[in-house]
Records
---
Amino acid sequence: MTDENTWQAYVEKRYSLSGGLPMVEMDELIGAAIFELGPMTYLDGGSLPTDLMLLAGLAERIGNCTYFEIGTWRGESVATLASRAASCYTLCLSEKEMLQRGMHSSAIASHMLFSKGLKNVTHLRGDSLSFDFAKLNRKFDLIFIDGDHHYENIKSDTIQVFRHLVHEKSIVVWHDYGFHPDRVRFEVLAAILDGVGKERAARVYHVGHTKSAVFTGECLPSRPAEFNRVPGEFYKTVISRHILKESQT
């Protein structure tokens, strides 16, 4: 299946969620704190400020957090978490695997741009479909799944994470549950729900104003998915520009 309408019908039939996940507001998860986020490039493939705000807030609320992510890309998310977590692990394809998949040299060079050299960040290389998660032999407080966004990959990543990396209080966040905060990506949703299984599916939520879904193991105050409604909240952003040393001439 590749058509979003087909995936939506699949989710509706199997999980009775034709409109998407129930929605939980940000303050239910992280309160009303103010965060300094970054580095961020605002380029394709990155997270929204609200997605990073969610991760940062969860890490700070957990305290002395251990963090794991699938999908390093430029390293923006793990670099944002590194200042808030005790230790961070991030997994991405090896350079050889990227070359085999025909990735452009500049895209390959962009990987780990902001996370390399950070003392509390461990970089793991490999394809999450074949990576041996069991060999890590540890659990993590906060896990961010943001690798390949096709059904089989997300389902596999989710199964492996819950099988090997979570403890009873772990929080799992999936990026790109939505194409944007007001439009569900049903292929991703189908993979998430099939990966967590029906028992856990009732505790997976869409976090309002983000492209992320979250599992906390708790029943949270939520409302049915409702898009194109009059906003009940807004965010303020302070932004500054910085030049990478490698880009200076």
---
Amino acid sequence: MPMDRLQRPLRDVRISLTDHCNFRCPYCMPAAVFGDSYRFLPTETLLTFEEITRLSRLFIALGAQKLRLTGGEPLMRPKVEALIRDLAALEGVQDLALTTNGYLLPTKAEALKAAGLHRLTISLDSMDDGVFQAMNGGRSSLGRVLEGIAAAERAGFAPLKINAVIQKGVNDHTLRDLAQFCKGRGYILRLIEYMDVGNHNGWSLDQVVTAEEMLSLIGGDMGLEPLPANYSGEVALRFGYRDGAGEIGIVASVTKPFCRVCTRLRLSADGSLYTCLFATKGIDLRTPLRAGAADEELSAMISGAWLRRTDRYSEIRAEVNENSPRPQKVEMHKVGG
């Protein structure tokens, strides 16, 4: 099993199924950049389901235990349940999850569960409809996503995870309501510090709501106390409710970087391998894959990339001046969150 230069094993693989998304969240795909004329990847450049399954088998042989399907919006990929069925059948997959904005779940949840998907994570940045629409570029009402969450519950996904990116002056004033909504329904809330993903979201440090500030906004009367990590490499700081009514987690990659325990590898929709969410370039697997490369050759490329891995972007970000030049990074909609 390969270990990278910082002695981190490969355990988690995030697989982007498409760079398309039906939302235009300003922190990921601002509409001013990703407008009607933006050119997304042509269909023929996307990895086929057979190619994704073959590479996933190799990832698992190299130590990966968890596969997460992402996008863009992964449910925009036609017949995604067919891929889920193939991945769920792979020996060694301990966790098969999917992250979605929830818009298409009312018609998809039952099929996803029947295909063998283990877990669902749904993005929901606010319980205020006006704030929510501002944060998805006006592409969806709050009610539509709540319908998707209800459909996921009916399909048997439990416990659901709810992801929320918290941005100062945008949705931080609605954070407590979101926490109460999730607590009352047994959802696991994951609060995410606003990150400088991609190159177009206009990130600055003064827009970050820190982990400590989030806990303060939720309020001490909700009875939160620290919990230990579920497993080595877990990125969220966990807090449980003293009354036993679930938990929240905070992904504090800006103020409390977790690079030293990161075990994630990312595969883009067009078959490039990235060893960090903030990577500047990937390794092309699609070309050798379609040129007839044997499993041994592809496996050597994957393990070689991991063995050379030294990524610790979030730690480095904390060490340099905010105004220092930053390299061009891969866009998040190409490699998932």
